[in-house]
Design a protein that fits this description.
homotetramer; 3 domains; five-stranded antiparallel β-sheet; two-stranded antiparallel sheet; 13 helices
């Protein structure tokens, strides 16, 4: 993650300017503000701003005049109740703003989460930097043979090396040509909005992304999941750590009820009831398809 | 606006607890935090939290590493440019959370603005207070004769007095009966979720309402407009004052380009071009219907 | 559900006018179009329009050029897969438009589902009808003693009779006074936008409500649930029947994975694994609170 | 726009299967259904489904039991009134579903319109086709010298030729290498979700895109605007033609009040009033910045 000295100075400057506020302050988050946490080879996540804390969730749920806190244990119980019963609106009362640097193909997945605010670096207006995601060798993996939209084991050495060679060479050539086309030395220079089309999807972009806690949890449940593509999962994992420090009660409830939990079908619940009674249930007697049964076995450990 | 001594103490308590933060701080908004500003006879608006300031709008528009401020005049120019060209996403980077107490019929209009987060006081769970909106005599107005969905001049004394008498008597009786039905003295007591249906639309409710600045401006443009119903307009007017102190550049641009501006049709623009050339344009020669022409004349002063 | 003869004639007229279309047609839904299905004492639900069918879900999931149907069994399998894995966007490709007549206090709950399009009958512009929801005696229930936001057993005869008497009398008086205030006989007549505030929350309103299938399923899961208030649940139940005829595969998957299913926490899954192994698990050894355990026991039957 | 014979057959098949429906039918749209209208060198737009027509807008605005049509002229007047007064909800009652094939860099702009439903062809799951957008020579333009985010005049012959050569060669090489990496001949084959990152932003993708008429108009106002990038504008232009045939009254109102209209600031309105009175107003005396004045002069013709 190459931050320029100017960028590092700007971040240090922001971290140096403490002010007074009457708003709710989350000490765990103040520690993270502005700092760029590296993700992948050139990416990062950094918190630009946040609104609210665990108490703010309770305050809104109670529509209270003051802090809404009766007691700390009381607050955690309420938050667990809200999470368990899908009362999502109190979680919407917290908000976070992130600055993220990420490859374009990751950005394309990410943006599908519509309930968020986004300002992306404009390649119509500005020139993109020469920064491309090149996977670490252990993440250069084969197409999965069991999951049509996933990856399997890492490629063997020679094949992995060929892949990395291609990715590096094509990125470099594409960028050289991008620069050549927009250059106004001895020529007019192609419009940036056109030249960008030559750049591959592993080039880095960046954006400001603002989202409420409920929708962030939804994002994290899907993107920190084991089935998410590795390259977006590492961003979700990094954000999980930040959220755990920001709203510890809410994050713990999220871990228990969402990340670590599972939604079971009526058929699956019926199987469980039979199994608890001592009945031996097989895929054939379960009423599930093979795929469902395999996933169910995964949940049952 | 009858706040109980406990509520006033809670608010004073919140205003007394200043903390350090590294986040952007809007001094104009710190002054308003938590204070309940009266609206109508029992309502209020108070700011619970906010995120961002004028500089945060520019910072997001520039996807910058630091504060995003080049210079103050530069920032105002950028904000005006963004507003003029409908670049709405940078304004979405600011967020505000309000606690509002308002009559139910106002809440029903307000909630139609969908892009916001809401936690309303639950009349399934809790007992509503005996507080009803009774208009001041000067706002007891006749049905408009020119606008089917508006009001005209204030009613004359005797008729206004009858109306006020009815509103007060019916509110009081409805609430007496509400209390009688839910009481568990000498009877079981009707479920709150049922009893509430006896209460009229002028009873007060309250909610936490959180919205980004772009969507707040949209709300204000429609609800602070002269055609909005008076009882929601006074809330919008109060919020306008708060926003003016929070993000002064953005608010000034909003006033110039939205509140004080007008959207003119192709037909209207054509008329203006002819008028500037000295042509006398009438409704007949304008190509507009009578209604459009009347509105156009209103814009032309 | 008192439809006027004119309204019945308009509905019959719409049902009599069949036309040719090249669009996807859901035969099960064509049978329901326009017909008003009664709900509560004066309410109804009727389908005004729909877009798509089961095949359209698959077509979008496959981004296909033609119908997207490989085979019927194939389609149902795909739909179950999409539902199981929370792939919600293909379900968003179906849309339904309903005309609903419902009490205001039900409308206030309903409108909290924001991802939908709504046009409500305007009481600023028009005069509301004299129609109020008065519960059937068996639904006049006491406040629940175990659930703070629910109802318990029906009230006993005398108390129920008192409640019904109050609801009827207060509704009638409120409406009489509403009419008296807006009347322009011998007086100016109060503006409708003001007079409406005298009407209680059991008066009926109506709206056009349009929503995509994914968001409709979310609404139905929450509102057809046993914990939803009876007066909104009956609307959800009626809509469930319509959806079952519209998109039978999707509805069946929804019943299995959502309505009949359950989301279990990591803690609950751990308990299940222990129980299947033959361990006796109690609330004390479960790691759950009493409330969670009671709900868990409910799921385990 | 190279449709395969199979795709053409599927489209012809869909256009050949007419069925009876009781729903609102828009004859102008039936003529367009399924047909792929070419855009750019390999792209297209085709209508997959639609809901509603001009009458449906009025029907919803009136919350009516029947068709909602009083008379045709009455309907057009109502639609113009709704458009003029920003009553957007009745327009949300119409919905359209499109199948669009478009370059990735266009898709990235398009997706920023969040209030829509999207299913995109998955390059994690499937292999992308070898189809790249290569601009026609007259659209290979220089960076604008007056607008930092736009393009100016076409490049001269030799420079344009160089650009086209680069775009073609880099696209071809990138795709060759994409194929080489995913191939499982004599090697394992790289996962598709990784290989796609080598592909440039001018490769074509495709999606199903569903949106309501209000949000479609918002999209068209921004993207059919002269300042939009040419490559997305041609899609918007093509959709405009379809909408004009679908809801002719609404489209006409949109053209007059939105596309052909302009939003003027309070300052600009003040200048116009002075100009109509015969005063000579200059940039200096206008109160506008140079940029604003230039835009204002553009509006004034």
């Amino acid at each position: 993650m190459p931050l320029s000295p100017e960028q590092e100075a700007e971040i240090a400057d922001q971290r140096g300017q403490s002010q007074q506020t009457l708003r709710a302050v989350a000490p765990g988050m103040e520690d993270h503000l502005y700092t760029a946490y590296p993700v992948l080879d050139h990416g990062f996540v950094r918190v630009i701003d946040y609104m609210g804390d665990d108490a703010a969730i309770c305050q809104a749920a109670r529509v209270s005049y003051g802090k809404g806190t009766k007691s700390v244990s009381n607050d955690e119980g309420l938050i667990r109740y809200l999470m368990r019963h899908w009362h999502s609106t109190p979680f919407e009362m917290c908000e976070i703003k992130l600055h993220v640097k990420l490859p374009v193909f990751v950005a394309r997945q990410w943006i599908r989460h519509r309930t968020a605010n986004v300002n992306e670096y404009s390649a119509r207006y500005s020139i993109l930097d020469r920064e491309f995601y090149i996977p670490a060798p252990e993440h250069v993996a084969a197409q999965s043979t069991v999951n049509n939209q996933g990856r399997g084991a890492p490629l063997e050495g020679a094949e992995a090396a060929r892949v990395l060679e291609i990715l590096k060479a094509d990125s470099a050539r594409a960028y050289d040509n991008y620069e050549a086309m927009i250059s106004d030395e001895g020529q007019q220079g192609l419009a940036r909005e056109l030249a960008r089309m030559n750049l591959p999807a592993n080039i880095y972009t960046q954006w400001y992304w603002k989202v409420d806690l409920h929708n962030l949890f939804h994002f994290l449940r899907l993107r920190a999941d084991a089935h998410a593509q590795y390259e977006i999962r590492v961003y979700a994992d990094e954000i999980c750590k930040l959220v755990a420090d920001w709203v510890p009660f809410a994050y713990r409830a999220f871990e228990d009820y969402r990340m670590g939990g599972a939604t079971l079908s009526a058929t699956a619940l019926d199987c469980i009831r039979r199994m608890v009674k001592g009945e031996e249930v097989t895929q054939e007697s379960s009423g599930m398809s093979k795929g469902e049964w395999r996933e169910f076995m995964g949940v049952m450990g």
